[in-house]
Specification:
By secondary structure, the protein is α+β, with helices and mostly antiparallel strands. It is built from eight helices and ten strands. Helix 5 runs antiparallel to helix 6. The N and C termini lie far apart (about 95 Å).
């Protein structure tokens, strides 16, 4: 018995055909033991048989497009089959194995943990809504209103339903399962990470007079979004993760580059504005405020340097 496996482009077994006997023919014609619907395969393309040593051998029957070992660009008229490396004819990949081929040992199935994703979703959602409520409370300067807390939470819920629903549908189409709880956990975690970074950037800008985290807040947002995209793609399929990661990384670099260019041009036109968007309690201030005397001292030093530069400039440059 000879088993011939037709592989998909992901190297998964799409079809498995068993041929009784010591010889099997493969081609597009109906007289073959295995018929391939591939226009680049000959009517009688390949013959599989055992040689004198008992090894399975693939022999090309004079096809135009030839027979290749997987990953090789050299045509082969005869190939010794090891059962591991596929054969390519036309645009079809095949794997040939004997009936006594030794398969890998049985894998130990992981324990089912249906409740764990749900518990994590509840925990992350509680942390996210708690942080939103804390943010509203800290920024509130007037009479507290319930709508100030409910509105942003309902907005987040709406965004999560739409976002996770799209990924669950895509996962259902391509993976056969929606994985709604896991996709929801990924989305909530990304949103929580973004919110935490924004709050930390805002507090470091105010408390430490360090505006860099706020200035590059857009880059952090793109990084978090790229990580969320990659995790969603990984949830759909764990194959070719390097390719998915490379595509996401390339798009990330392009997005950050474009926005950095736009911000640079905007700053060159109007100047960089470092202003606090939300008022914070003075108790959060970790670095003392500078006194007016220190400010005017820096202005005087700057004026002295400017006067020195003007004196060193050439007369033509000074006139301009």
């Amino acid at each position: 018995m000879i088993w011939i496996e037709i592989l998909s482009r992901h190297r998964d077994v799409a079809t498995r055909v068993g041929v009784a006997g010591e010889v099997a023919s493969i081609g597009r014609g109906y007289e073959n033991d295995v018929i391939l619907d591939d226009p680049y395969v000959a009517a009688r393309h390949l013959r599989i048989f055992r040689d004198e040593a008992g090894q399975l051998v693939a022999e090309d029957l004079g096809s135009i497009n030839g027979t290749f070992l997987d990953g090789s660009t050299s045509r082969a008229s005869r190939l010794v089959i090891d059962g591991q490396r596929p054969i390519r004819i036309g645009q079809t990949s095949l794997r040939v194995r004997a009936h006594d081929y030794s398969v890998e040992p049985e894998r130990v199935a992981p324990a089912e943990r249906h409740a764990l994703p749900i518990v994590l979703v509840v925990a992350v959602a509680a942390a996210l809504f708690g942080l939103i409520a804390l943010r509203v409370w800290l920024a509130q300067t007037g009479e507290p209103r319930l709508s100030n807390y409910v509105t942003p939470m309902l907005t987040v819920c709406g965004i999560m339903v739409i976002w996770v629903g799209i990924w669950a549908l895509v996962s259902r189409i391509f993976a056969g399962r929606s994985h709604f709880a896991r996709n929801l956990l990924i989305a909530l975690s990304g949103f929580l990470a973004s919110l935490i970074y924004n709050e930390l950037a805002r507090y470091t800008s105010f408390a430490l007079t360090w505006p860099a985290p706020s200035s590059y807040e857009y880059a952090a947002a793109w990084l978090i979004l790229a990580a969320v995209f990659f995790l969603h793609l990984r949830q759909i399929s764990a194959t070719r993760l390097w390719l998915k990661g490379a595509i996401v990384a390339a798009l990330l670099v392009v997005a950050i580059g474009i926005q950095s260019l736009q911000r640079s041009e905007a700053f060159s036109d109007s100047g960089r504005q470092n202003t606090a968007r939300l008022l914070l309690p003075p108790a959060f201030r970790a670095v003392p405020l500078r006194t007016p005397d220190a400010f005017f001292s820096d202005v005087a030093d700057l004026k002295t340097r400017l006067d020195s530069d003007r004196k060193q400039a050439r007369p033509g440059e000074a006139a301009r």
